[in-house]
Amino acid sequence: MAQEPTDRSLILKVAILYYERNYTQEEVATKIGVSRPAISKLLHEARKLGLVKFFIQDINKHVVELEVELQEKYGLTSIKVVSTDNDRTNEAIQMQVGQLSAKYLASLVTRAKTIGIGWGHAVSQLVEQADYLTAPHVTVVPLIGGLGLVNLEIHSNYLVAELAMKLHARYTTFYAPVIADSAMEAAELKKSSLVSSAIDAAKNVDAVFIGVGNNVRDSTWADLGYITDSEIKELEQANAIGDVVANFIDPNCNEVETEFSKRLIGISIDDLRKIPNVVAMAVGTAKTASLKTLLEHGLINSLFIDQDLAESILEQQV
Q: pTM for this one?
């Protein structure tokens, strides 16, 4: 057996045989007359010397890099970022986020017994894109009370029933409004057996799928007319940056307390912290502040978002 080569010309020869001629390391070792481990060391040396450089070229490379960076930064279990290139419409992006989160849901139902569902457009897309499955062992649970008679398709109770039908699963109903007429009424409702049992069920699920709100003034609450201008101002003065489930949060991820927020009925931020898998779905940079806060405080385990929002989260200074 010849002495193991270390000079630059032989390093280059090994690199050419392996990377350009597609010989295996064993075949290169035979041709050069050295051991296979020596070939491995020479290939490593070729990269150190800059004789060999690797470039990953793919249309989705940037999107995957965003996924890797977000996953590493926030310790996420699962993440998918949807491309916004080529002037894709907001509807197409929302649909793809829904499809990817629905695919993730399908992977969960084989091992989860209870799944909690929030409300809003993102959760509605999840339910719409979900495949028909057979999961009779699963119970789907609403995380908040009912919202009213308008825009039924984004309300928690409705979405729970629709998803349960698609999964051939069981479901529960939250027998209370999400917005009580007063803070006192909300407190009394929470004491009732029907509402307290609904909240207990929501607190003890295996996983939840939730949307994340914009700033208060542009929130779904405001769009649907569930909140008045004076209530919006009060929340903004209390430093609310967005909402999740039935909670408005400040930059420190604390629940903001106003007369309006005290009227809301659903699980709390502390309840979310204790759920094993919180899956968030969001589209649009208007959600940057609220989503980044939730990520920074470790409330989210799995994430499905668009490219613009991913970039905005990573660019924004803490």
A: 0.81
